[in-house]
Amino acid sequence: MDLELRHLRVVCAIAEAGSLTKAAAALRMTQPGLSAQLRRIETMLGGALFDRRRDGAVPTGFGELVLTRAQSILPGVDGLLADTTRAARRMSAPDRVRLGSVGGPLLGHLILAVRESLPGTEVTARSHSSPVPLLEDVAAGRLEAAVLGDNPHDELLPHDGVALVPFATEPVFALLPAAHPLAAQEEVDLAQLLDEDWAVPGPDRDRTREYWSSVCALTHRRPFAPYEAEGRQLIEIVRAGLAVSLCQATFIEVPGVAVRPLAGNPLHYRHVLAWRRDGPLAPHHTEILTRVRTGYANTCADSPAYARWLKRGSGEAPVES
């Protein structure tokens, strides 16, 4: 058996984890399987790499030598693989574009825009509750573009090689059971919502839950949230009359729930598009942005609660140029 890069990665993973058990979990291997592989690597290299102790695995002197070399080799190899992957993608016409999205109204418009700009290209998409992993995937070349979102004072951090374009900032609205007394009002005070039980998303890397709590704290109160849910499950809890929650202004009411503006617009959500500057969408980004902006404006007009709110104000969707 010849020494391979994967063997060096195994050795580095064990050293970083400090034990075979933790390293096996990180590598998604069984502990016996990792132990057997380590024995084969040690036989191949000619010496023990780790002292196995009850409290973990400690590199031997010989292991330190191997680790020093491995840690100098692997970053260069990883950089080479990333560079060649991007170069190969630039050199050939794209036959597949991979998109990602958080929850929101823009993914469908983005898919249509990409199809119109790159006819014949296969488009795939996947979603995630948090924008941070999606942004990391765009930066790593695992996605060509993504629909993201962030909150005031907690904006997404820039990544090398990624264009981040804020697209629109909209208010956050109240999500209520349709039969709730507050649903009869044109707008709802945040303080009124805080008299109710809440359903909130789980803690995540986009920190939406923390943002909601911080704004509520300005009223010297915090929401009592016995229900933690997202997506369809959160909507069903509200529909059942068990709790209230918050939603994007472009959320379209479904039977059993009501969407109402918050008085004074205390919370906001920003839509952001991200794409690789050296990816296949970069030459077409202007036309894609134009098409998505048009689609978003139509979505705002088709969202009854938001359309009424806009009509009372500027009458135009807050699309950023």
Give the low-confidence spans: none
User: How would a crystallographer describe the biggest sheet?
Assistant: 7 strands, mixed
Gross morphology is globular
- Compute the number of helices: 11
Radius of gyration: 25 Å
Helix and strand composition category: alpha/beta
Fraction of residues in H or I helices: 40-55%
- The CATH first-level class of the largest domain comes to Alpha Beta
Number of strands: 11
Q: Can you say what the CATH homologous superfamily of the largest domain is?
A: Periplasmic binding protein-like II
Give the total of domains: 3
Oligomer: single chain
CATH architecture of the largest domain: 3-Layer(aba) Sandwich
Compute the average pLDDT: 89
Ends apart, CA distance between termini: 58 Å
Main attributes?
321 residues; alpha/beta; Arc Repressor Mutant, subunit A; D-Maltodextrin-Binding Protein, domain 2; seven-stranded mixed sheet; two-stranded antiparallel sheet; 11 strands; globular; transcription regulation; LysR family transcriptional regulator; LysR_HTH_N; WH-like_DNA-bd_sf; DNA-binding
What is the strand and helix layout of this fold?
Layout: H1 5-17, H2 20-27, H3 31-45, E1 50-53, E2 56-59, H4 61-91, E3 96-101, H5 107-117, E4 122-127, H6 131-140, E5 145-150, E6 162-177, H7 190-193, E7 197-200, H8 208-217, E8 224-228, H9 231-239, E9 245-248, E10 257-260, E11 268-276, H10 285-302, H11 304-312
Parallel strand pairs: 3-4, 3-5, 7-8
Antiparallel strand pairs: 1-2, 5-11, 6-9, 6-10, 6-11
